[in-house]
Amino acid sequence: MTQDSKSERYKKGFAKLQEVHGKVGEDVLDDLRKTAPALADFIIEYPYGDIYSRPGLDVRSRQIATIAALTAMGNAHEELRVHIQAGINVGLSEEEIIEIIMQMSVYAGFPAAMNGIEAAKEAFENIKTKKNP
Amino acid sequence: MTQDSKSERYKKGFAKLQEVHGKVGEDVLDDLRKTAPALADFIIEYPYGDIYSRPGLDVRSRQIATIAALTAMGNAHEELRVHIQAGINVGLSEEEIIEIIMQMSVYAGFPAAMNGIEAAKEAFENIKTKKNP
Amino acid sequence: MTQDSKSERYKKGFAKLQEVHGKVGEDVLDDLRKTAPALADFIIEYPYGDIYSRPGLDVRSRQIATIAALTAMGNAHEELRVHIQAGINVGLSEEEIIEIIMQMSVYAGFPAAMNGIEAAKEAFENIKTKKNP
Amino acid sequence: MTQDSKSERYKKGFAKLQEVHGKVGEDVLDDLRKTAPALADFIIEYPYGDIYSRPGLDVRSRQIATIAALTAMGNAHEELRVHIQAGINVGLSEEEIIEIIMQMSVYAGFPAAMNGIEAAKEAFENIKTKKNP
Amino acid sequence: MTQDSKSERYKKGFAKLQEVHGKVGEDVLDDLRKTAPALADFIIEYPYGDIYSRPGLDVRSRQIATIAALTAMGNAHEELRVHIQAGINVGLSEEEIIEIIMQMSVYAGFPAAMNGIEAAKEAFENIKTKKNP
Amino acid sequence: MTQDSKSERYKKGFAKLQEVHGKVGEDVLDDLRKTAPALADFIIEYPYGDIYSRPGLDVRSRQIATIAALTAMGNAHEELRVHIQAGINVGLSEEEIIEIIMQMSVYAGFPAAMNGIEAAKEAFENIKTKKNP
């Protein structure tokens, strides 16, 4: 059986999702899928299949951009925490992540940065807990 | 005459401002200084003297974070344009900048990304005009 | 005793509040009234008495607009949940509400849409729990 | 020669773009394509091919949601104007559009609503100019 | 002939609008009235008739709150400029207004503050131009 | 031993932090310091040492501006609660704070104002609990 191109985007996106987020990404999408299965598919296909898989920017730089944006916008604490964990996965150090978030005090104000640091604290603890259960 | 620490922060910030923005940064601050001189000083001291000068994150990564945040927030078109020009100054390619902005469609929506691309177009044209007058 | 026009706006608004939200709307305002009674009155008078009662747009269309806006702004999770329950009250299907929220991924990004879906999940569960206790 | 599924999404999206926006949509994307061709393709494929083409919500309701969200967010005046023109295309009356925007005073404040009315004024004039040149 | 309460709110609001904004407020609303007459009425009745006319907070303090909020939100440059002019009308000094706006760098970031200073510059020039024509 | 100027800004900022927030401010920063010690220092130095300590605007007016901005932005519930408690510390009455927050319904919408009132309720309860344990 041949697979159509949608499946190609989906497969490419799913592989990228796992590379960036590990098991956490699947868990988030499995939860979303119960209420909005199409949105879970779209997230695999567009952000991960189309955008994150593009060759013009390395995944470490992409994760810097995402952590900065979610800290600055301040509308999605859980997603920020998940993307900070992903930042560690793709090679950012804890120190670099703290620097990205602190820098957002300049562009989005100190409360946004303080909330970003709280998300980082939670993300770093999540990683430690799973590594040393 | 010895200079006090405020002057140290200011001098460090001013050097960093020139490294990141070249002459453009001074022009923006000179205009601001006419109405709010203290804010112009604070911008040199805090964002550039305190934050951008920190060693924990390279300036290329800092500029990725800033371009992402300003595109996502969408509240400061001129500042975004100036920071895209700075992105070129610190070693980002036009392609990388386009990728950062396109990625913001995922986190802040397509209109924010489209407006970011417009700022990039203006920034790239500004650079070309000055190079080849 | 005749009632003045403020009472007319209030009465019209209170009837519209009940039409749109049922008992839930009163509960939210009763809680608000303990700290800011004037704001509770203003909410009945302006949003419900003045705006929602206008004839130029049907209440189903008004609820689409509100669910879209609150999902996109992402600053009021509880209010979004309450307005999703109201969407069901005024004739939107669960499927239509999910579509409205998913569409916000285009204009406000995927994290805003994901948080909107979470609010929808909570709203749908609230309705089921009360119907089948 | 058979076309692959990406072309199917693109073709479906392009047809929907024309249905919703007429010639205006293509003009906007042609301008975007000069700087970020991939983003122009993504806009045809995801918002129009994937989202607007879904059967679960009629296009009139989708346009209500978009006009509401862009008015409330207030970060994209041009896109709002283009989507108001599209609202007329898909069957909303000028009066209904004004009602949607006025309602946003409740959720996003009066300045956002006032700016939305300004975009509506421009959109209505654009339509009249082209109809009666 | 007795006037109904809507007229009372409207008259109270119109007097407050003139106190706060002088002739400028009427000009802004006259322009709005051409496209959305009901919204112009609502603005006189709710923000000025209901809110600004309340006794619990002096009008100078109210104007501080409005200038701060519009600077921080950054979505309404014209309205901010008009409210800065109103700040002068109700007794704030230019210096105090600059301080309010600079303080927003802390809560909303430096770009928002810089844009607020630009609005202040325009407002101060408008006032001077009209005083010394 | 002489202290350098950084210590001067820090000492001035720390004194201002205590004046505005009492013990609460230190508690918030002590928690932040565990993850991002530099950000805790920057908050003492810039917002409190540089901005709040400036003579051009009294601290009561500064607190009005901050409560208004945080209510309008709606991205930092905890910080808003802390700044409402600080508003009481610097001489605002509960009634004045409620008025500031209600006024934000005009500029940022009713959901933002309702969430602000919730933060005020929590702040007023915190103060009462500590006074009458």
The low-confidence parts of chain A are: none
Q: CATH class of the largest domain in chain A, please?
A: Mainly Alpha
Number of helices of chain A: 7
Shape of chain A: globular
One letter per element, helices H and strands E, the order of chain A comes to HHHHHHH
Question: Main sheet of chain A, how many strands, which sense, barrel?
Answer: none
CATH architecture type of the largest domain in chain A: Up-down Bundle
Identify the quaternary structure here: homohexamer
Provide the β-strand percentage band of chain A: under 5%
Mean pLDDT score of chain A = 93
The CA-CA distance between the termini of chain A, in Å, is 43 Å
Q: Which superfamily, in CATH terms, is the homologous superfamily of the largest domain in chain A?
A: AhpD-like
Sheet/helix structural class of chain A: mainly alpha
Strand elements of chain A, count: 0
Descriptive notes:
Six copies of one chain form a homohexamer. Chain A has two domains: 1-56, no CATH class; 58-133, AhpD-like (Up-down Bundle), CATH 1.20.1290. The first copy, chain A, is 83% helix and 0% strand. Chain A has helices at residues 5-21, 23-35, 37-52, 59-73, 77-89, 94-108, 110-131. The radius of gyration of chain A is 15 Å and the shape is globular. The model of chain A has no long low-confidence stretch (mean pLDDT 93). The interface between A and B is medium-sized, with 31 and 31 residues.
